[in-house]
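Tokens as discussed.
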């Protein structure tokens, strides 16, 4: 069983502070699961390089939040919007109107925004586009929800051959 120490983490570009302790706990857990040191270190580096991608990962979320906190400590105060929006995935971009994308861009400029996405059914909403998803750090944003009643992508299954539907 490989042990991930603070010294090893520092030699692999892990910053001093809380990140070392969190990374050691994650490393110990993964080592107990049978992962070797190089895989664990690569995984921890992935979290440090793209923390917003790991906010939903039960094991990595605490490390991801700490990495984001450190990244943002040198940013302007929380009342200043970002000049450029954070990057976010857009599914079905060719079918989404420019107004919805602009609305999501505005949300991604918020200083509390940490991640977001636009679904293929996106359209203009109140504050955030319907079909938009926004993750915020230490904030609740009442208008960052969809309010379009019965709006959804729908899948209907028919127990008939496709040729019959034509």
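Sequence:
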């Amino acid at each position: 069983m490989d042990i991930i120490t603070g010294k090893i983490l520092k030699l692999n570009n892990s910053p001093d502070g809380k990140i070392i302790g969190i990374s050691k706990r994650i490393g110990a857990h993964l080592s107990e699961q049978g992962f070797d040191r190089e895989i664990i270190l690569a995984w921890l580096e992935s979290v440090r390089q793209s923390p917003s991608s790991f906010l939903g990962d039960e094991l990595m979320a605490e490390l991801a939040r700490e990495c984001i906190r450190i990244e943002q400590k040198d940013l302007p105060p929380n009342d200043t919007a970002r000049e450029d929006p954070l990057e976010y995935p857009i599914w079905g971009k060719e079918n989404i109107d420019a107004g919805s994308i602009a609305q999501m861009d505005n949300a991604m400029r918020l200083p509390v925004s940490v991640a977001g996405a636009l679904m293929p059914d996106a359209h203009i909403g109140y504050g955030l586009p319907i079909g938009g998803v926004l993750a915020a750090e230490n904030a609740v944003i009442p208008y960052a929800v969809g309010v379009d009643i019965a709006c959804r992508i729908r899948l209907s299954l028919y127990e008939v051959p496709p040729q019959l539907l034509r």
